[in-house]
Structure formats: C-alpha cells, structure tokens
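Re: the request from the purification team.
They wanted to know what the chain is likely to look like in 3D before they choose a buffer screen. I agreed to run a prediction and write the result into the notebook, where they can find it.
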Amino acid sequence: MPRCFNRRSDSYVAAQAIEDFVAREEWQLAEIEAGLAEASRGDFASAGEVEAVVGKYVKSTRQA
C-alpha cells in the first residue's frame, strides 16, 4: 500500500509486519507444543469420535 494511504513510515510498517509475524508464529508453536503434549500423554480421539467428526463432513458411500 502506498505511503500516502496509510501515512506510516516504512520502518513502522516493517516493524508492525514483524510483530504480526512473531505473534502468529508464537500462536502456532503453542498449538503444536500442546498437541505434542497430548500425544505424549496418549490423549487421542477414539475411533468413534473420529467417525463422528468425519461423518459430519463426508457423505457416506455405503449402500444401506
């Protein structure tokens, strides 16, 4: 976006972009670490739980 629209210096825009990137990466890393901790504890969804979620989004191809 041209500077005339946002009225911010290039250094401000760059610093804001870096802050946004770091915040996004921190959130993703926290989610990954939480998932790894769950896996280490053996905290997985049961087959029935997985089927229930998949069933919401996938149409059955089985004939009744």
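For the purification team: The chain has a mean pLDDT of 88.
Please add any questions underneath this entry.
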